[in-house]
Specification:
Helices cover 44% and strands 12% of the residues. It is α+β, with helices and mostly antiparallel strands and 66 residues long. It is flat, with a radius of gyration of 13 Å.
Length: 66
């Protein structure tokens, strides 16, 4: 349930190289807790957000905390 659905959609259309990633561990935890998880169509689920960050850093990406 996000108030940013339209903004995410616009950003995805404007920036082909932008990705929206959902943590599979978090999705699974919410589901175990009985919460319904519905992601925006632009979102891709990865097994672990931390693992995704580590993989990107190993590929030469830079992590910027905002």
């Amino acid at each position: 349930v996000t108030t940013y659905r339209d903004r995410i959609h616009r950003l995805a259309q404007q920036h082909a190289n932008m990705a929206f990633i959902a943590c599979g561990n978090t999705v699974a935890r919410y589901q175990r807790e009985g919460k319904k998880v519905v992601l925006v169509p632009e979102a891709k689920v990865v097994s672990s957000a931390v693992g995704e960050i580590v993989q990107r850093l190993q590929q030469g990406w830079v992590y910027i905390k905002v």
